[in-house]
Queue: 2 jobs
Job 1
Amino acid sequence: MSRDNLKNQIMLNPIPPRLLSISKSRAIRLLFLALLNNTDVVIRRILAEHRREDLPDDVLRMLDACRFWSNHNIPVGESATVLRFLWWLNESSGARRNLDRSGTLADRMVTLNPDMLNWTIHELLDPARVPEQTSQLASAATLYDPGKYPRIELNCPHHLRITYEVLDEWQNYKAGGVLPVCGIDPTIQAQAEAFLRVLCGQELQFEPLQQEDLPFARAFLGELVVEEARERWPSLAHHESNRFVEMERALSDWDTKHVISSRDHRVIQAVAMRAILKGSKPKKVLGAISHRKAVAKSWPRFEQFIEWAYEQKK
């Protein structure tokens, strides 16, 4: 890197944390542990540090499930993680809450079978048994009954590693340590920083580390990353959309029609950022998003970030 590029990199303003997002993976796991332990300490911590409108929709669904668990009907929104976690609690405890799905989750394939309660951790991760190839059931089981399920050491899925980290921090807290924090979502932060660097004239520095990076990586690194992702993260076919297919459709829609009609939050974010880096103004791009509220599933302040980032370019 030349000295001029290094100087430009140093001069970039840091992204204000309020424009990023809380880690929904950590928040949902901490809230689930709090529900299992009949404490509102995590709820109070989150609401003391964040306004409701700044919280991802998935986090709000778990937070409200914790607050109103005595109700019969529990809305889970579009969050498959919240659905699977609360389903596990339902089946294991006999709570029998009605878990209401909406949006993209209403049409998604979600394999839920009471026999799963008797499966081993490896069976819960077996794609022959769970076609969606998700680790969420393994996470739910581990959080619900940590002593029953041995930890996966080799080729541990990314989100199951997060589960182990959060569980260790929670057990340390119960032993007298500090209450774990949710923190900023590292996936969103890495993508936001990569976008900002390119927007301000620097080279793209981004490496896809886990499955939620695929839409951004496809938008900015090209088609080659998709083939690798099919091998590494086949579960991407079973998210809010089949992201292998949806990204190609969304990119084509923008290039040919200048519209972003996807309902998948990460696809919308990736295509919008690519459009801006290709020269479109934020107002035009954001106005072309058919489902603007969808991005709040993971990044409620996405539009405010885009506007702030564009100002840094000037």
Job 2
Amino acid sequence: KNAKVWTFTTIKPIAAIPADKLRLEVPNGYVPYRLPTLYGPLAIGQTFPFAGWTNGRQQLAKGAATVYAVLGTDCAPSTSSLAALDEIRKSGTKVLLLSDATSVAAAKGRYFDPTGKSLAALSLTATPTFFRVGKDGKVSHLWMGYDPNKRKEFVRDVLAAPKEDATE
């Protein structure tokens, strides 16, 4: 309800800041919370958790390089990313939509995880989150969030990812 993205324009990156030297002022009405230190999305090089995802007819399986878009069921950025994902798909890149829902009806035709275990294994901090997974089943690229005003840049970055893989 009271979520806000804060940009720290006055803090410059420093190699090592002792934890007791950093202070964050939280505006009135917002509740700060602490995430575990290692919490964050599935990292580049880790194996994508294919088991457990279904669209009600078939299970998710490792195969060709694919962009997996994890979308929130009631998330405006997730909904606004659909046009960009369609553009990416039309360019020949395989795109599969995953939902944070736990039922066929709520998932609206997307793959979902009825147990929540595979979704939890992704360690998402928010939706939408996009993973490019190679045919080896490992995450090669990761994009978090979506800004409809930067659709062209997002599409360009996602389409460039397979070319980057080919040069590695």
